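The pair is listed for reference:
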Amino acid sequence: MWGRSYLSGVQWVMADQLPPEVKALVLSVNGTERYRQLYMNGMFRQDAFTSWAFANSEVKTRQDPGELYQQALYARPHLDVDVKLLGQELPWYREWISNVSREGEYWKRGVWNMLQHIPPQVHTPVLMVGGWYDHNLDGMIRAYEQFPEQTRAASRFVIGPWIHALESSGDLDYPDSDVLGTFTIKQATEWFDHQLKGQSYPYRKGGIDAYIIREGRWQVWDRGFPQTQKQAYYLCSGQEVYPSSGQLTSEASSTQERISYTYNPDNPVPTQGGEGLLAFSFGPTYHGAAPSSLKQAEPGSRADVITFLSAPLQADVAIQGRIKAHLRVSSDVDDTAFTVKLMEVFPNGNAYNIRDGISSLAYRNGATRPQDYVAGEAVDIEIELWPIAWTIKQGSRIRVDVSSSNFPAYYVHPNVSGPWAEQQQVRIAQQTLSIGGAQSYVEFPVAVASLHADGIFTAEGS
């Protein structure tokens, strides 16, 4: 069986109950974790899923759906946006934007609950194809990690520097990344020839073929994501080269301080690149945020973005896995959001995004139901970013931006507690980030060793 995106979703639904006549699957850019696709720590991915709703509503309108999508991004309360702009309810979309808690009945029944339990029951060899910038990546990786050992050993997972269309995008070059063939025909044909005709397979099975960004090469991870060691960079004060800036250091400083900024929901930080974006694919009228890795704004461009810069690196830092940002924060409102963006700053000063993440205070630290927050209280939040394979090169700097919005990748938090889609009013919030010591830091999974590093793909026996 073979099909991309939605058609891979169809395969997932039946993957645990296939007859013996089905010998192999090719699954690409589709996973089994709908909740995690829609929400990161209580924050809804508007660019991807509001655009998808308007592109697939099947409602005939006089106005272009892309123009309606743009209006929907700014509508408050968002819950009624379907009736206001399309003239009728979209029940499935209302379910998405109303069920923020993973403990809601909506996520405990039906196809979304069923999909979560399918990967451990898959016994058919699978060729999986995903992209570092695809909005399904997180769900694909989690599904792969749940495969039975025997299934993983007979399968292969390819992750390239691609967006949902399985092509590269953005401002960086990705040499030797065009290996799939049109519509993945080359890779799928080789897989089926092997599984159905018994022909030799030119690549290793049982692991992940990962494209290492900034190295321009492929690496085989034999048993999933490789062994790594944690390397922390601490947020601390320093000489302000730019307004609202600090330093990133490998050693925690002895001085503890606080940095404050004002977050106004009516003036959100615009999305500039990243993973999990989709509106761009529906056509020019959607004016979707550009995906992948893009050149970023200069530090100090906004007063509500706090930038931390490391010194030039003395050696490469090979990130392979899930980056975690640990922030100690407070706010003068009952609920709000905090964002983090990781970048590589090239020696020429240009910065390019590696990964970004977000968390509300209500759903901090992966909470499955809303947590209380008392205004003014300092709390520790952990934001786990999606996996990535990216080597920050010697001579580059690491840059971390902290703020409170990333729009339209995520909805704009109104600084009001309660279900986000029901809120009509917004408040301006005073946000505080505690730095120095080990109060706030970013933890990188750094590769211990490089294995099977030669060639575009690593062939069996090489």
In short: The CA atoms of residues 7 and 65 lie 24 Å apart. The domain at 229-447 is CATH 2.60.120.260 (Jelly Rolls). The longest helix spans residues 185-197. DSSP finds eleven helices and 21 strands in the chain.
